[in-house]
Design goal:
Number of strands: 4
Number of helices: 23
Order of helices and strands: HHHHHHEHHHHHHHEHEHHHEHHHHHH
Shape: globular
Structural class: mainly alpha
Strand order of the largest sheet: 1-3
Amino acid sequence: MKNILKYTLAAVAAISLSNCTGDFEEINTNRYGYSDEELTQQYNHIGSGFSTMFDNIIRTNPGWNYQLQQNLNADIFSGYMASPTPFAGNINNQTYSLVDGWNGFIWSDAYDGNDGNGIIPFANKIDIYVAESDNKNTVMFKYLSNIVKVMGMHRVSDIFGPLRYSKYGDYETTGQYDSQEIAYKTFFNELGEAIDGLEVFYGNEQFVPFDKSEFASPAGDNIRNWRGFANALRLRLAIRVSKVDPVLAKTEGEKSLASNAGFLENGDMRVGMNGFSHPLMEISNGWGDIAMSAEMESILKGFNDPRISTYFAPPADASLGNYKGIRQGIKIEAKSEYGAHSMLGSFIAEPTKIWMTQAEVHFLKAEAALRGWAGAGDAKANYEAGVKAAFDLANAKNVDTYLADTTSTPADYVDAKNPANNYAYPSDVKIAYNAAGTNEEQLEQIITQKWIAMFPDGQEAWSEFRRTGYPRIFPVVINNSGGTIDTDIQIRRINFVQTEKDVNGANVDIAVGYLKGPDNGGTRLWWDTGAPNF
């Protein structure tokens, strides 16, 4: 980020100009008046806006938007990356002084987008189109829209907790929030309807022109593949709520495991970025604002993991060794102190963003098996399949040797500049699956490998860390939260942004009441119980 003040002011301006209540009347008025005949002409009036929805879930252009939407929060909180840049005098998200001007983009990309059509507003427009159409084929677009909407909005909920969701679209209730529990139950209902409803549309190619996923080819299979993705997403969310509501989790998870929709059989769920490379390349190797984390160094080097050579680059300072990470939340006076550490590698250079991988599905099934869900298969077999799929994705070799390793453990972290930042990794988790271990020991193995495999999606990795405590993310050294975030418990959420409070304050106050505590970064989300995993 070349000019943090410029982007912070831009954030405030963007959110203020397209605030959450300003669209209440507009989203409930059908200004389009398209006839069924027009709708059937390749469905352009419905499908053309899908591009905006795709783009805003993980918004990668311009690069600084991604930096604010995800990189300077979840990518760091997850233990994936750390910044050598002491933004705002080192008083920023990385040291738990949460910056509204940055974090507001997480909210505004979902509700406002780059042109007044964020994720959920356009999904609402599709609902209007379908409701007013007598053409039964339009419901296919609603099912697809709901899948995309759930994909985007569960990520927003997993950051803030309560959100405007099930009541969005009615002028009287658009500003009202759901508790996270209600939102998740709505997610499950919408995914279930889509999974059931899309089966009759197999072979239908009317969505192909609007489909930015790699599932668009071969064209005849794209609806089948979207149905499989929806089913995989349902399994992800079922595992997410497995501690707070085991009955709901098992019910939804077993629906997925028994469904004929399958799980990403034709490949990882990737979404195109209009030919641009991932912005992490620019943020890391261009601006020098993001680098390898201390946790990644400890785990990958300790495991002798060959994926390290694609995930990260050797440091510019050869004296630091082959790979060197930075611990988050430390004292940094200038970028030059840690700016020669390992930046990001070629793995993130592809012109696509990954929403979900086959590897993640295998790890979800491994945990489901550990929890005794019907149809999940064998935990060890799923674990090993997940590691193999992740190695394939990273073009890494010798996976069988890796999986047979019974001795390697994460290494202790040594800060090359300041020994006060050294940290002994607090676990001897191994690679070779120990089916004789306790459920907790097996879960740590599953989540640690899942964490490695989901790189660079820090949002999902942060959510899984908060849910399970794995892998062992290092606490910050400097905590500028003023006591609102416990250093050892670590950050659990991001507070509601000030612009939302300014324009929708009464409803935000109600939403705060749905939380387990005050509106700050130390309050756990609904599914983040803090209780034992078993």
